[in-house]
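Late entry, evening session. Most of the bench is empty. Finally got around to the prediction I had been postponing all week. Sequence below, unchanged from the version circulated by S.P.
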Amino acid sequence: MKFSIQDGYPLEGVLTYDESEYGFSFSAQGGESLSERLGSEGVASVLIGTLQLEVDIESREVLFAWGYFPNVRGVVAELTAPQFNPGQVFISSDHSFEPGVSFEVPGDRWRVSYDPSSGWVAIRLNDASGAKFAQIASGTVLGFDNGDLISVWLKPIFAE
């Protein structure tokens, strides 16, 4: 599973972390709407543990993050968000994507850090010095090294 960044605009909306449900949700709004990015084949997800990255099956575009994620404040640390550009991210894979079916992102040592002063949640496999970062949706930044997903940076609104 490889990821590529292309020029484009992030999906506009609101990323929320619901403390009572231990999960992220994304509500698209304004700008280029979610419906304009969805093809006719439905959606699937790629997984980092229980965190899901929604993928349009037809275009294979990664749209936004969502899902049950109870360990959001597991390790409190000072985080410096990476420099990122707006963009669209696409997956190339030998897997055939099917509606409602998820695939695990390679890597089994993802670390979670939370910075209460900035509000960023970082889910990182490693900190590659040459990584590239793209903001794919409001509050959602993905990091890549040689086509591999190595980090997800989330800046949600926390709700109780």
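Two things to note before I forget:
The helical segments are 34-37.
Residues 34-37 form the longest helix (4 residues).
Will write this up properly tomorrow.
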